[in-house]
Fold this sequence. Notes:
alpha+beta; 2 helices; flat
Amino acid sequence: MVIQRWDRIGDAVSLRDAMDRLFEQSVVRPRRESAQAADVASRMPVDLYEKDNDYVIRAYVPGVKAEDVDINAERDSVVIRAHIPGEAEKEEAKGYRWMMGELGFGDVVRGLSLPAPIEASKIEASVENGVLTVIVPKAEEAKPKKIAVKAK
């Protein structure tokens, strides 16, 4: 009979590795190329910055027409939806045998929570060269106030 000394650190690390492998195998499945392309399409990359009394959101929406963009806003959040057209969706592409499709296409959605209340009725949006620009004015109560100091 062989007696082995229990190593708390070594056993804990191996248990953690086993749990990580179990989690990856059961929940995080390896992606195929088509799944990666679909995932790229579902994520809309955005820039968000503050300028004076507005928030400015810029998003990549290649090939999207202005009428195909839907923007909803309330209180302190903005949700942008668009449909990015792709070659695979076009009727003339049905005869092709696709080898790789990384450009991304399909429905994209992005929701943003802003740090202060906004004026949803005054939002302006435009699309130019595949970039959507959304100007979101801050609500009056969120704008900085200048306080005059009086001398006594």
